[in-house]
Design goal:
Elements (H helix, E strand, L loop, with lengths): L2 H33 L15 H26 L6 H24 L11 H32 L7 H6 L1
Length: 163
């Protein structure tokens, strides 16, 4: 296997693992916010789950589906794995991760004094979200290199003759 393909597979595995970690962190945080509904008192006002947290939960689930698709389709359904679709999905998912981890970072309290509990989990979700964004940035760049320089992908003579 060429180095390019090994690097892409390693990034896909990292994306999957980071997405599962962020899914666990955000799922726990959503459950904490939802549990507060049942602890209502006279001086507690429930505002709901923050939308940035819900968005990061969506991005984690989206990424797991996209990464599974990007790993499986080139091997089992090669006609569905068009290089421009892979680049578009990588770029879209990269933007989702960037928006998600920045939006959650804005409402995350500072690190000092909050080493336990939901605040630490929220800080971990932001950190792992940033690493997931970096992983998708790398695969977006690698997909663009694959398209524009012709490295790594299979040459399809049918597409060239059809043009």
């Amino acid at each position: 296997m060429p180095f390019f393909d090994i690097l892409v597979i390693a990034c896909r595995i990292a994306q999957f693992v980071l997405s599962v970690i962020v899914l666990g962190c955000t799922g726990y945080l959503v459950s904490i916010y939802r549990a507060d509904i049942y602890n209502l008192s006279e001086d507690f006002i429930y505002y709901g789950v923050p939308s940035s947290l819900s968005f990061l939960l969506f991005v984690a689930v989206w990424s797991i589906i996209i990464v599974a698709w990007q790993i499986l389709t080139p091997r089992f359904a090669e006609r569905l794995a068009h290089r421009f679709v892979i680049l578009g999905l990588d770029a879209l998912t990269m933007l989702f991760w960037f928006a998600g981890f920045i939006a959650l970072a804005v409402i995350t309290p500072p690190a000092y004094g909050t080493v336990h509990g939901p605040y630490a989990t929220q800080q971990a979700a932001v950190a792992f979200g940033a690493f997931a964004w970096l992983a998708f940035l790398v695969t977006t760049i690698l997909s663009a290199i694959d398209i524009f320089r012709g490295h790594g992908g299979k040459h399809n003579p049918e597409l060239q003759n059809a043009a």
